[in-house]
Design goal:
It is a single chain. The protein is mainly α and 50 residues long. The protein has one domain. Helix content is 92%, strand content 0%. The chain has two helices and no strands. The chain has helices spanning 2-16, 19-49. Helix 1 packs antiparallel against helix 2. The chain crosses the membrane at residues 20-40.
């Protein structure tokens, strides 16, 4: 749900701003998504180990 909203926001930026800044926003967002995804995975594994 959150990811879909961010994609819609990204396409809105493509229409309103320069393409380069919109692509930068998309890649930055994907990097944050991956980072959070792996951070939560590691936290869950740490909790299971305890």
């Amino acid at each position: 749900m959150k990811f879909d909203f961010c994609i819609i926001l990204h396409f809105g930026l493509v229409n309103n701003a320069q393409l380069s800044s919109a692509f930068f926003f998309l890649f930055f967002h994907l990097a944050v998504e991956l980072y959070l995804h792996f951070a939560f995975k590691i936290m869950r594994r740490a909790e299971e180990a305890m």
